[in-house]
Amino acid sequence: MRSWVLRPAAVVLGIVLLLGLTEVGLRAIGLGDPVVYDNRLAWGYRPLPDQTRLRLFGARVHVNALGVRGPDVPAMRPRDTTRLLFLGDSVTWGGSYVDDDDLFAAVAARRLAVDGRLVEWLDAGVNGWGPENVLGLVRETNGFDSSIWIVTALADDLRREKTHVGEVPYFNAPPTTALEELLVRGAYALLTAYKRPKPDADLQRLAEANLAHYGAIVDHGRAVGAHVLLVWHPTTEALASDVDAYRDRFLALAARAGGVGLDLGPAYRAVGGGVYLDGMHLDTTGHRVAGEAIGDALRRIVP
Fold first, then answer.
1. How far apart (Å, rounded) are the C-alpha atoms in residues 211 and 190?
2. Which candidate among 8, 82, 154, 273 keeps its CA 20 to 30 Å from the CA of 228?
3. In Å, how far from its chain's centre is CA 47?
């Protein structure tokens, strides 16, 4: 009789210990304390202000009082300072596996500052964003009084509608445990496996609309007195084939800002193409290469 009592107790204890060890392990690699997002009409969602996290494998992620990734800066830019605003999706955000100081936004700012110029940088990229999200942000904030807007795009962005909370595995309220965060992300990956792309005709219409959104971003930047640099980021497939739909049309929009665009493809090829974490996102080396190329382009266009 005693063994029948002890056996279920041992099973329960084993499960509790397993869950506890799993929680400890997940927290050790940086899960359990994710960046928390808002839920807004204008831009869909973006990080809430004033958050600092140590995320995947110790990468530091700091969201300042303006609600963008990067150093703390005053709301109004000092008159003797060049403020860079980086706009885009998860490629610009950099992922929680890249430390703030290693983002291409930080690398480009340091590149621009080598001649003694005072430079601030703001990384307003957000995971899952499309051009309409970016447009909503700059219309609402006027670009945080930034001197230069750097808008990074890739082919995937042109296939996106405005993204909202609930369509992405991000949190408006923090999870209680690391296991909870893992389960949410796992469920999202499982559910999206059943998604199918829109018909080609719909994707074509969406791309045209998104090119118009990028044009509106450029126009709004000029209206508030900012320089605008348009940057094209190729995927691994596009880098290998040098066939990238909409790249040239996107970069041609830069003429509306009185300048030229930047294709990062040549910079990636110059280092052998070993800049990606996956088919789209950059590793730390990729952020360095992209940041140096963007920094050099900025030095050519900044007064």
1. 31
2. 273
3. 11
Cα separation, 22 vs 25, in Å, equals 5
134: Cβ–Cβ under 8 A, 6 or more apart, which residues? 43, 87, 88, 151, 213, 217
**What amino acid occupies position 165?**
V
Spell out the per-residue pLDDT of the chain, length 303, in tens.
555 555 777 666 677 677 667 767 767 777 777 999 999 999 999 999 999 998 777 789 999 999 999 999 999 999 999 999 999 999 999 988 999 999 999 999 999 998 788 999 999 999 999 999 999 999 999 999 999 999 999 999 999 999 999 899 999 999 989 888 888 888 888 888 888 889 999 999 999 999 999 999 999 999 999 999 999 999 999 999 999 989 999 999 998 878 779 999 999 999 998 999 999 999 999 999 999 999 999 998 876
Neighbours of 62 (CB within 10 A): 17
DSSP output for 95-135? -TTS-GGGSHHHHHHHHHGGGS-EEEEEE---TT--HHHHH
Q: What HEC string does 15-60 produce?
A: HHHHHHHHHHHHHHCCCCCCCEECCECCCECCECCCEEEECHHHCE
Second CATH level (architecture) for the domain 31-301: 3-Layer(aba) Sandwich (3.40)
The two structure tokens encoding residue 137? 């942000």
Of 12, 54, 28, the closest CA to residue 182 belongs to 28
Cβ neighbours for 242, distance < 8 A, ≥ 6 positions apart = 265
Angle at the Cα of 111 from the Cα atoms of 109 and 113, rounded to 5 degrees: 70
What whole-number distance in Å separates Cα of residue 137 and Cα of residue 144? 10
Which amino acid is it at 114? V
